From TrEMBL:
Protein name from the UniProt record: M23 family metallopeptidase
Assigned keywords, A-Z: Coiled coil, Membrane, Transmembrane, Transmembrane helix
Domain M23ase beta-sheet core: 199-295
GO molecular function: metalloendopeptidase activity
Taxonomic path: Bacteria, Pseudomonadati, Bacteroidota, Flavobacteriia, Flavobacteriales
Coiled coil: 56-83
Length: 323
């Protein structure tokens, strides 16, 4: 085929050869390129707008799969949360109660983690809310599991010290039944023997002859020995472990000194009527974490059920106290 082009000239009635300059060639090439680029741009725009590339289709399938997995993960987190709630409930209401440990406050168990920018690196994506929520819930569970683990460590330690705890807790009468005349007054509001007014009686009064032995009701250390003519009179305080203390008042004589270690059943002094007292008796108090509580709940080691019921009946009478 000829490489030259011709044009018909009506004036001469002949075909004349077209002679193109270099500039004409450049214009022709440029026009062709521009037209091609325009059409190519339109095609590419339409393709990227309305059709996914293989890579995009693969990424979308992967995103859907990840979204499904996150949804399933959240359901598993729900199940773990319920199990953890049950463990916490058992810990607070069973394990820690058995070993007389205070429950862990909810404010500690549910304490926050990190700051507001903790999840900033996963913000701004299509499924950021789902990912942030899942991360946040997992972090919260991890924190609560850590607190629960520490709680169990404490419970295990308390279990190992159970023998010591049982020995420390006041658990017998401070005066033997054979020496006891009667229980004069219990814990609660009673008529004061001197002032003749209704007043809170923070212990129990055991009447017995002067000189009757008084026994330590649990293992501990003598914290206080004081001779006095007022109030409690001659009295002894024993500091037991696990937050317990016991007080023995109106003694006629001491059998211990401050700082001395004693065992349950050791004689620490003798019944008297010193201080604000109207007759020979022992005023006995039990304290837990420096709060005075009813001693009636701490005589379970040396009384039969019948004797214990009788003691409750006698100590509950709203009679006059001896101090």
């Amino acid at each position: 085929m000829s490489k030259h082009k011709y044009i018909y000239n009506p004036n001469t009635l002949n075909y004349e050869k077209i002679n193109l300059t270099f500039k004409d060639h450049l214009k022709k090439i440029g026009s062709t390129l521009i037209t091609g680029l325009v059409f190519a741009s339109i095609i590419i725009f339409l393709a990227y707008t309305f059709f996914d590339s293989p890579k995009e289709r693969a990424l979308k399938r992967e995103n859907k799969q990840l979204q499904l997995q996150y949804s399933l993960l959240n359901k598993e987190v729900d199940q773990i949360t319920e199990v953890l709630k049950d463990v916490v409930k058992r810990d607070n209401n069973i394990y820690r109660v058995i070993f007389e440990a205070d429950p862990i406050p909810q404010s500690v168990r549910h304490a926050g983690i990190g700051g507001v920018d903790r999840y900033s690196e996963i913000q701004g994506y299509e499924f950021s809310d789902l990912v942030v929520e899942t991360r946040s819930r997992i972090d919260k569970i991890a924190r609560e599991l850590y607190i629960q683990s520490k709680s169990f460590d404490e419970v295990i330690d308390l279990a190992k010290r159970k023998k010591e705890m049982l020995a420390s807790i006041p658990a017998i009468q401070p005066i033997s039944n054979k020496d006891l005349t009667r229980i004069a007054s219990g814990f609660g509001y009673r008529i004061h023997p001197i002032h003749k007014i209704r007043k809170m009686h923070t212990g129990m009064d055991f009447t017995a002859p002067t000189g009757t032995p008084i026994y330590a009701t649990g293992d501990g250390k003598i914290e206080y020995v004081k001779a006095s003519r007022r109030g409690y009179g001659n009295h002894v305080i024993i500091k037991h472990n696990f937050g317990y203390k016991t007080l023995y008042a109106h003694l006629s004589a001491f059998n211990v000194i401050a700082g001395q270690n004693v065992k349950r059943g050791d004689i620490i002094g003798y019944v008297g009527s010193t201080g604000t007292s109207t007759a020979p008796h022992l005023h006995y108090e039990v304290l837990k974490d420096n709060r005075k509580i009813n001693p009636i709940n701490f005589f379970f080691n040396d009384l039969t059920p019948e004797e214990y019921d009788k003691m409750i009946e006698l100590s509950s009478s709203a009679n006059q106290s001896f101090d």
